Every structure is written in C-alpha cells, then in structure tokens.
Amino acid sequence: MTIALALHGGAGTLRRQDMSAEQEKAYRKGLQQALDAGHAVLLAGGSALDAVCASVCALEDDPLFNAGRGSVYTLDGKQEMEAAVMDGNRQDAGSVTGLAGVQNPVRLARAVMEQSPHVTLGFAAAEDFARRIGAPCRPPEYFHTDKRWQALLLEQERLAAGGSDADIPEDRKHGTVGAVALDTQGWLAAATSTGGRTAKWPGRIGDTPVIGAGTWADGHCAVSGTGHGEYFVRVAAGHEISARIRYLGETLEQACDVVVQRDLPRLGGTGGVAAVDRQGRVALPFNCEGMYRAAIDGQGRRIVAIYREDG
Ligand code: ASP
C-alpha cells in the first residue's frame, strides 16, 4: 500500500551563505521532526488528515517557523494567525483566520470542518468557537519571538521612510507551514498554517485559509502553498493544479510547474507548493531561491531540503 507525505516550512530568499551552520541544523531538525510525526501516523494506518495535522502541529509548535508559535506580526504589532485543512476524500474543508492565542490554529480549522456548519470562521468568532470547544490556548509570550518582532520594526522603518511593500525583501515577509499526504486507503488531505506576512494590515486575509488558493485536496491531489498569498488567491493556485490534472490529464509535476513557474510569476507572485497525488507522487516546486521542505514519496524516497541546489 502506498503512502506519501510532503511538507513545507516557507519559501523565500533562502541562501546557504546567509545561514549559520547551527541555524541550518535547527531548521533541518524541525522539518525532520514534522516529517516523522506525520509519517508515523501513516505507517500506523492512520488517515491522511490525521497525518497532515500531526506534521503541521509540529511545525506550529516550533518557533523557527511562521505559524502558531513564532508567527509574524501585523503592522500594528499583533499576531493574526490563519490555518486550513481539507479532506480530499469527502472534499470537506475548514479554516480560521485572524486568530490569536490558540496554540494550534490547524486543530481549530479542523474543528470548524468537523464541529460547525461552516467552512471558515474569523477573528472574534473563531476565538469564541475555540473557547467553546476548549481548544488549548496560550498567552502572547508563548507566541512571541524576537526575530519576528525585529522583522516588524525593520518593515515599519522602511515604510515610514517611504518604502512600499514591494521593496521589502521577500525572505522577511515569507513563511507558512503546510503538509499534504496520501494514506493507505488512498485518501488525500492538505493542511496549512501561517502567521501571514510581516507588517500585513490588520484584518488582511491571505491564501492559507482560502480554500482552493493556499490549501486544496480532492480525489486527485492535495496541495499546500507558501508565498505571496495575494497571488495564490488570484490564480486559485491549489484548485488550478487539481483542475489541470483533471481536465488536461497533466501529471502532478506538470500541473504544479505551470502554476508555480508560469502563472504565479506572470502576475509577480513568488513562492512554492507541496503537493501529492493519489499515486503517491510528490512535487515540491518553488520559484524563489529556496523552500524549507521535506517529503517521503510513494516509493519511500526521503528528502529534507532548504536551498535550490539541495536534493
Ligand atoms: N502565504 C502566506 C501569506 O501570504 C505567507 C507565506 O507563505 O509566505 O499569508
């Protein structure tokens, strides 16, 4: 029986020369742990949905990645987290946006799918729902990292000096975590979680919680995106990849390449995706210098990589 899992931890200007050996080691360890967490679920015969949630929770709990703990800050110094899950088997989905204080936004997104009549809940309503179902919450210090705070100060300075959002190096704004999986039943699922983009306007909603943009799963493929969310929404990236497979008969790799290497850059969008199809093929394309990524494909081949020239 074929199982497969792929994940990402954000994409951007990730260059070997900009990273210390310790930093690189820590990122690889975080990716490895998240891969192991999801893979263990699949090996035990668990569902793709459980597997992607396990991987994404591991990344949300790791302050190195921009999701859950370690999320970036909005222009006014708050954290507004977003997450989504999609179960390809039932083509059902749940997502949350504008969330603060919930330890694992991805679990709340799943609860929206499973315990509410809705697909997406945001802001105060999402937090009320979290309280009602007893989702584990944490104080602001838990989510804070100096690195993300410094990144905000830098952006604020840049904007105050007349710079535009477009001048900010992509690596400072990027980050999202996501996982896609195929389980022993042949079912696919996707999950994505993010703090969004540094210095985003309060109330801004990115691609992660928009089903069909940053998160998608059906009977053909599962996709999780990372990159400049506005562009992922404008090309309906996740759904577009699936549509190309279904209507044009493209392979997962071909469909992902068209969207990531042609459609997104044509509008000016940078980023990448983690994707898997029902044969257990994995694709991890990106159109910038690097993407934190890891996978075990249907043939058991394992990769943990960061830079373009890696793996
Ligand atoms: N896609 C995320 C957003 O736009 C950020 C990222 O993946 O870099 O909110």
UniProtKB/TrEMBL annotation:
<dbReference type="Pfam" id="PF01112">
    <property type="entry name" value="Asparaginase_2"/>
</dbReference>
<dbReference type="GO" id="GO:0016811">
    <property type="term" value="F:hydrolase activity, acting on carbon-nitrogen (but not peptide) bonds, in linear amides"/>
</dbReference>
<keyword id="KW-0068">Autocatalytic cleavage</keyword>
<dbReference type="InterPro" id="IPR000246">
    <property type="entry name" value="Peptidase_T2"/>
</dbReference>
<feature type="binding site">
    <location>
        <begin position="204"/>
        <end position="207"/>
    </location>
    <ligand>
        <name>substrate</name>
    </ligand>
</feature>
<feature type="site" description="Cleavage; by autolysis">
    <location>
        <begin position="175"/>
        <end position="176"/>
    </location>
</feature>
<dbReference type="GO" id="GO:0008233">
    <property type="term" value="F:peptidase activity"/>
</dbReference>
<keyword id="KW-0645">Protease</keyword>
<feature type="active site" description="Nucleophile">
    <location>
        <position position="176"/>
    </location>
</feature>
<dbReference type="GO" id="GO:0006508">
    <property type="term" value="P:proteolysis"/>
</dbReference>
<feature type="binding site">
    <location>
        <begin position="226"/>
        <end position="229"/>
    </location>
    <ligand>
        <name>substrate</name>
    </ligand>
</feature>
<keyword id="KW-0378">Hydrolase</keyword>
<protein>
    <recommendedName>
        <fullName>Isoaspartyl peptidase</fullName>
    </recommendedName>
</protein>
<dbReference type="InterPro" id="IPR029055">
    <property type="entry name" value="Ntn_hydrolases_N"/>
</dbReference>
